[in-house]
Amino acid sequence: MATSDLGRLLRLEGDVHIDFIDSPALAGNALGDPSVRPLAIYTPPGFDPQDSTRYPVLYVLHGYTGDVAALVAARPWETNVVQWADRLITRGTMPPVLVAVVDGNTRLGGSQYVDSVHNGDYATYVVRDVVAHIDATYPTVAREGGRAVLGKSSGGFGALYLTMAHPGIFAAFASHSGDANFRGVYMGEFAATQRVLEAHGGSMADFVTAFEAKNKRSHAEMTAIMMLGQGAAYSPLRREPFAFDMPFDLATGELREDVFARWLAFDPAEMCLTKRDELARLRLRYLDCGRRDEYGLDTGARIFTARVRAYGLEVRHDEFDDDHRNVGYRYAESLPALARVLETR
Hints:
It is a single chain. The chain is an alpha/beta fold and 345 residues long. It folds into two domains: 5-181 and 267-341, Rossmann fold (3-Layer(aba) Sandwich), CATH 3.40.50; 184-264, no CATH class. The protein contains 14 helices and ten strands. It has helices at residues 5-9, 68-72, 81-91, 122-137, 154-165, 182-185, 187-198, 204-213, 219-234, 257-264, 268-271, 276-280, 297-309, 331-341, and strands at residues 15-22, 36-43, 57-61, 98-102, 115-116, 120-121, 147-152, 172-176, 284-290, 316-320. The chain is globular, with a radius of gyration of 20 Å.
């Protein structure tokens, strides 16, 4: 088969195909985000959809502010996730797999891959619509044992969340610098967000409109939009624009314990306390994080790991000397580890 232009651009031995799927789970969302989403599928060298070979699939979730285009983009001195897969398969370091890069972006920068009456049902979109499209279109091992999910940052959170909230879809996860330990991570972000919103009269809609009109955004503004994205995911109210709660008083910044409790229900470090059976069925539980992570997410990985190991379950937990950014080289560890535990027929 001829290599596509994108495959040639990325200098792959395999190839990348871009499909578009129309997800009923995302239709009619309050943010006006499209229900038709791109899906990038990496196919390994020698792939022939007409032969009898079946492939396991690694589903990749991008981080906050990411999308499919960002994850498959080529940058000097860096290697993206499909380039890593291609390199590792070509070298014989991992068995051939398909890699599906999922789009979970929203107007507020990200969906956290959870179902939300405000954002749309992004968990359902992934585990039902995306998986069904891949299994119907490509020669896959179309069952739990043939699928794994991974991601970085919010994508790492998504990998943790989906395996616990929707057991039976994926047989393994890898979380790179994934969101966890919300108690330790978000408190300072709440204060910064309250200050930004106060400058816009306490109006989330006015802030977002101004944010979108800018050519460049400050760090404080990026923090605020990220916290609004979390609120739309974790504490939605209605299918109306900006109808979601924030876990702090918009006037004073005082913590709203009832709303924050809704956020904590999604925290992997808290979720795992009641998800032993869901975690036990997995073939690989993999977490890593840089020890200098700016958000303190290394503590979240440590807490999650300790709590899951207390069940008597194995967890691969790696720490490395780096921060939160540009850590895609960690795919060289996670991709082979995931591929080796999946079924191939």
